[in-house]
Design brief:
Blueprint (H helix, E strand, L loop, with lengths): L29 H12 L6 H10 L6 H6 L2 H19 L3 H22 L34 H12 L21 E4 L6 H8 L3 H6 L2 H4 L10 E4 L4 E5 L6 H7 L4 H6 L17 E5 L37 E4 L8 E4 L5 E3 L4 E7 L8 E6 L4 E11 L6 E2 L4 E5 L9 E8 L2 E3 L7
Antiparallel strand pairs: 1-2, 3-4, 5-6, 6-13, 7-12, 8-9, 8-11, 9-10, 10-12, 10-13, 13-14
Length: about 425
């Protein structure tokens, strides 16, 4: 081995030279040269950190000893890594955003500092002119005063002085004067006593008691009939010989002062004479109800030996809408429908009557005895499909809806009776 070989690198300085970037002709840094020479002469290797720090930033030409003692590929790799790190740091886009964020925080702080030094005007608004309940407070609750600037104080005072004052109504409701005279109404198709009563605001019994033609049976109502409509609930009485105020008051169960007090009667006092044939309105008066005369089961004979008995459970006899309910003057329900709609037995039993004609206003009708104290009646039929004595099952068709007898339109008049007394069908139908 040659005597001039480098003791650290194990090679001759003349045969292995370090490859550095292009250098200038300036003299190498004496301190770097001295440090390098000392390290080589002392027999110690140069640290990678000292080389990485010195090489990129030094413009001086490394000494021959340094070039001879440092591996060229290692130095060049460190140099490239350092350059890339510097370029990455300078190209980072986050740094401007962070700087802008810091500046905005400083700006907000400056605005707050300035606003804290501004003196706001004092406000003095008095609510003493307003009622306490309008402010949602108790009657004697204290009310805080707020002072307004003088520029708007006058306006505020004017507003508070007129606050919450009741304004005039833009319109006036005129109460309609109660009707005092008797009105005449002409019956139209589809009318019922119940519907007419609702139209005039009186009870249906009042219409019955004011019209003798339907007093016994409101189903006798016919199209074109002229009905007296009283202005209030009560009875219309036609004076007959021997009638007095006292007798009328006793008959209709009212005080005589009620009859005298009705202006349209034109009676001065209790001694006033009633004119025969004149009309007297009895406010609040009433009459006893008279059941319409309909053939009963007893008058039609006994039941056949094989008569079917009903179950006691009833079904609707036809479909449609209720045009008249059960009330004091109408002990049945009327089911409005179309002519020809099927009518079915509400329960099992046998037919005791199936007749046509007027029949007291019922028209064509059927009566079924259910053998358990109940009977059912179907009136105003257009046609009848059964005959007396025939057994009928529940739901069996017995005829069709019609408009016969005393009827103002096609409907079924349906009754349920127990022991001969009409009952409200609603209490038995599902």
């Amino acid at each position: 081995m040659s005597s001039d070989a480098n003791p650290v690198l194990g090679s001759s300085s003349s045969s292995r030279q370090a490859h550095f970037p292009s250098t200038t002709n300036r003299e190498p840094d004496s301190s770097l040269h001295k440090h390098t020479s000392t390290a080589v002469e002392g027999g110690h290797g140069i640290s990678a950190a000292s080389v990485a720090f010195s090489a990129p930033f030094s413009t001086a030409q490394p000494s021959e000893d340094l070039r001879a003692s440092t591996p060229p590929s290692f130095i060049f790799t460190l140099y490239q890594q350092l350059q890339g790190q510097i370029r990455h740091t300078l190209a980072d886009q986050v740094t401007p955003l962070r700087l802008a964020g810091h500046l905005s925080v400083l700006a907000v702080g400056a605005v707050i500092l300035v606003m804290s030094q501004v003196q706001l005007p004092e406000w003095d608004i008095s609510f003493s002119a307003l009622p306490n309940n309008a402010l949602g407070m108790a009657e004697n609750a204290p009310v805080a005063d707020v002072t307004l600037p003088q520029s708007i104080g006058t306006v505020a005072a004017e507003l508070t002085n007129d606050a919450l004052k009741k304004s005039a109504a833009p319109f006036t409701v005129v109460q309609e004067k109660p009707r005092e005279s008797i009105e005449v109404y002409t019956v139209k198709a589809g009318d019922t006593v119940l519907g007419i009563a609702a139209q005039f605001g009186v009870q249906p019994e009042t219409i019955m008691w004011a019209n003798t033609a339907i007093e016994q049976d409101p189903d006798r109502l016919s199209i074109g009939d002229q009905l007296n409509i009283l202005p209030l609930d009560g009875v219309l009485h036609i004076v007959k010989p021997g009638d007095t105020l006292a007798s009328l008051a006793a008959k209709y169960k009212v005080d005589s002062s009620a009859i005298i007090g009705y202006t349209a009667n034109e009676l001065a006092d209790s001694s006033a004479t009633l004119q025969i044939g004149s009309q007297v309105v009895v406010p609040g008066g009433s009459k006893p109800f008279i059941t319409p005369q309909v053939p009963s089961v007893a008058t039609l004979g006994s039941a056949p030996s094989d008569a079917v008995k009903g179950s006691g459970s009833f079904s609707w006899p036809t479909s449609g809408n209720i045009t008249q309910r059960f009330w004091g003057g109408h002990r049945a329900i009327d089911i409005g429908s179309w002519v020809g709609a099927p009518v079915k037995a509400t329960d099992g039993g046998y037919v005791v009557l199936a007749g046509g004609g007027w029949n007291g206003g019922y028209g064509n009708h059927v009566i079924i005895d259910h053998g358990n104290g109940f009977t059912s009646l179907y009136a105003h039929l257009n046609s009848i499909f059964v005959k007396p004595g025939e057994n009928i099952s529940r739901g069996q068709q017995i005829g069709t809806v019609g408009n016969t007898g005393n009827s103002t339109g096609p409907h079924l008049h349906f009754e349920i009776r127990y022991q001969g007394v009409p009952r409200n069908p609603y209490n038995w139908l599902p």
